[in-house]
Amino acid sequence: MDLEILNSEAHRDLRLGKNSRTPHFVQIVAAEFAPAAATCPILIAKDGDSGKFYVGAMFGFKAGENLLEAADGTSDAFRPLDFERQGFYIVGDDIAIDPANPRLNAANGEPLFEEGGQPSDALRTMQRVLGQLNAGVALTDTFIATMMAQKLIEPIDISLSFDDGETLSLEGLYTVSLDGLHDLDDAAALDLFRRGYLQLAYCMAGSLRQVPVLARRRNRQLSAAF
Predict the structure, then answer these.
(1) pTM for the complete prediction?
(2) Coil, helix or strand for 194?
């Protein structure tokens, strides 16, 4: 990926279009756990390149599937910061763009810069999104590290059978151990509570109730296709 530092002169004609369809698994940060848990499962995965743990919201059970999105692309689910920032990155103290991203080549999109070179409303919104995401990733990484130190992260295998006969087994995913949380000594539990991590952990564990909800939605979509 060849990134370019965003510049009002070089990129004055760029327009910001709509995102593509939401991926089936999107990285989220701690501040997004509560809205995510209301509509989809929150799980931990490992980055394929670095092997580092990250937290993601699951919108579908396989690549290209978004069970919370209508046929016209609309969705009642929350939109993760990592999805909203598509095409934009932070490099040092600067904002960089991927000029090859389709949303930055939209003929009818919103301009990134005003006539005088000042950031447009669309770019100011993106600046806020990137700022929230950058701060949120650091906090979430600390949360994950704390969970690991307390041995509270455990693998979870999800196996599902659907009305069309297809069986899906989702591997390489992790969650927070409820048994481990209940076995914490008082000092450790109090520390997690005061740091806000206990609430995040229970939010993740509770979000697993959305797995069968998504499965039923998938079955309804399969039935509607016939």
Answers:
(1) 0.89
(2) helix
**Residue 138: how many CA atoms within 13 Å on its side-chain side?**
5
Taking the C-alpha atoms of residue 106 and residue 145, their distance in angstroms, rounded to an integer, is 40
Asked whether residue 74 carries a pLDDT value surpassing 70, the answer given is: no
pLDDT at residue 147 tops 70? yes
Q: Give alpha helix (H) positions in the chain.
A: 33-37, 81-84, 121-149, 178-182, 186-194, 197-207, 210-224
Residue the block writes with tokens 């949380």:
181
Q: How far apart are CA 140 and CA 148, in angstroms?
A: 12
Q: What is the mean pLDDT of the segment spanning 42-70?
A: 91
- 12-36, pLDDT tens digit by residue? 888 998 877 678 999 999 999 999 9
The more confident residue out of 213 and 108 is 213
Euclidean distance between CA atoms 136 and 31, whole angstroms: 7
Cβ neighbors of 131 (< 8 A, separation 6 or more) are none
Domain extents in the chain = 4-224
Bridge partner residues of 169 (DSSP) = 159
Residue showing tokens 């510049």: 7
